[in-house]
UniProtKB/TrEMBL annotation:
UniProt keyword Transmembrane present: no
UniProt signal peptide: none
Annotated protein name in UniProt: Transcriptional regulator
Keyword presence, Phosphoprotein: yes
Domain EAL: 23-276
Annotated keywords: Phosphoprotein
C-alpha cells in the first residue's frame, strides 16, 4: 500500500496488462531473471551534434527472456516499481554499466554512461552510498556516470528529490533532467536541483523540422538550457532534417535512431569503427 501510494504520488499508473505484444510475465519471473543475469543494459550513443563524435551512452534495460525474446522496459520497469524490485534492478543495471564503461576505458574508449533512475530510489537513503561503492569497485570517476531523472518525477517529490540528488552531485555524479518539456514544471523549481544536463523530450524533437510550434519550443528550451550552462541533449532524433535543426539551434548532443538503436555493450566498439570510417 505504501508503494502504491508512492507511485500515485509520482503519477504512475498500474503496469500494462498482457496482450499480443505484451507477454504475460510475473513478478516472480522478473525476480528470477534478475538473479539469472537476464536483465541487461543496452547502450545508445549520445553524439556531439557538430562533430559527430560519440561522447557517451545511455543504458536502457532489456529483459532477454530465453523463450519470449527481448522484453521492453515499458513492461517490466513499472512491474519492478510496484513489486519492490526497482532498487535491485537499478543497482544491477548501474553495476553492469559501470563494468562496461571500465572495460571500454581499458581499451582507450572513454565514454560517460547514463543510467535511468526511478523516482522511488530518491526516497532510499542507502542509494547514494551504494552508487559510490560501484565506482570504487570499477575504479571509475563519478564524472563518468550520469543519472537521468524524469522532470515529472522530480517535481512530484521535490523535497526528497532535492536531498538525494544534491548528495549525488556532491559525490561528482552528473545529473540529467530526462523528458524535459513533459512535466509542466518551471525552471525555477528545477534550478533548485544541481542538474548538469537537460534532455529534451522526443515529442519536441522528432519531426520538429517541419512543425513550427515544436521548433519554437525546442529552440527556446535549448537557449535557456545553454544559458544555464547545462549540457543540452535532444532525444529521438530520427531524420537528417531534425539533426540539422539541432545544429542550427546549438544543441550539444543528439541521440536517436538516426544515429543508432540501443545495442549490447560488446557491439559498440565495432559500431564505432564502422560509424567513424566515413
Ligand atoms: P527514456 O529514458 O526516455 O529512454 C528513451 C527511449 O526512447 C528508449 O526506449 C529508447 O530506445 C527510445 N529511443 C531512442 N531513440 C529513439 C528514436 O529516435 N525514436 C524513437 N521513437 N524512440 C527512440 P526504451 O529503451 O524502450 O525505454 C523506455 C523507457 O523505459 C525509458 O525512457 C526509461 O524511462 C525506462 N527505462 C529503461 N531502462 C531503464 C532502467 O534501467 N531504469 C529505469 N528506472 N527506467 C528505465
Ligand atoms: Ca532516459
Ligand atoms: Ca527520455
Ligand atoms: Ca521517457
Amino acid at each position: 500500500a505504501q508503494l502504491a501510494a508512492a507511485l500515485q504520488r509520482f503519477g504512475r499508473s498500474a503496469p500494462p496488462r498482457a496482450s499480443a505484444d505484451r507477454p504475460a510475465v510475473t513478478l516472480a519471473d522478473l525476480k528470477a531473471a534478475l538473479d539469472a543475469g537476464q536483465v541487461k543494459p543496452y547502450f545508445q550513443p549520445k553524439v556531439d551534434v557538430r562533430t559527430g563524435v560519440v561522447k557517451g551512452v545511455e543504458a536502457l534495460a532489456r529483459w532477454l527472456h530465453p523463450q519470449l525474446g527481448t522484453i521492453a522496459p515499458d513492461l517490466f520497469i513499472p512491474m519492478a516499481e510496484q513489486g519492490g524490485l526497482i532498487h535491485e534492478l537499478t543497482l544491477s543495471i548501474a553495476e553492469q554499466s559501470c563494468a562496461q564503461a571500465a572495460r571500454w576505458n581499458r581499451h582507450g574508449l572513454r565514454l560517460s554512461v547514463a543510467v535511468n533512475l526511478s523516482p522511488l530510489l530518491l526516497d532510499a537513503d542507502t542509494f547514494v552510498g551504494e552508487a559510490s561503492t560501484l565506482l570504487e569497485h570499477h575504479a571509475l570517476a563519478a564524472e563518468q556516470v550520469v543519472w537521468e531523472i524524469t522532470e515529472s518525477s522530480v517535481v512530484a517529490n521535490l523535497g526528497a528529490a532535492l536531498g538525494t540528488l544534491a548528495r549525488l552531485r556532491l559525490k561528482g555524479f552528473g545529473l540529467s533532467i530526462d523528458d524535459y518539456g513533459t512535466g509542466f514544471s518551471s525552471m525555477q523549481q528545477l534550478a533548485r536541483i544541481p542538474f548538469t544536463e537537460l534532455k529534451i523530450d522526443r515529442s519536441f524533437v522528432s519531426g520538429a523540422s517541419d512543425r513550427h510550434h515544436l521548433r519554437v519550443i525546442l529552440q527556446s528550451a535549448l537557449d535557456m538550457a545553454n544559458r544555464l550552462n547545462l549540457v543540452t541533449v535532444a532525444e529521438g532524433v530520427e531524420t537528417i532534417e531534425d539533426w540539422r535543426l539541432l545544429q542550427d539551434f546549438g544543441c550539444a548532443l543528439g541521440q536517436g535512431y538516426l544515429i543508432a538503436r540501443p545495442m549490447p555493450g560488446d557491439d559498440l566498439p565495432t559500431w564505432l569503427r564502422q560509424h567513424t570510417q566515413h
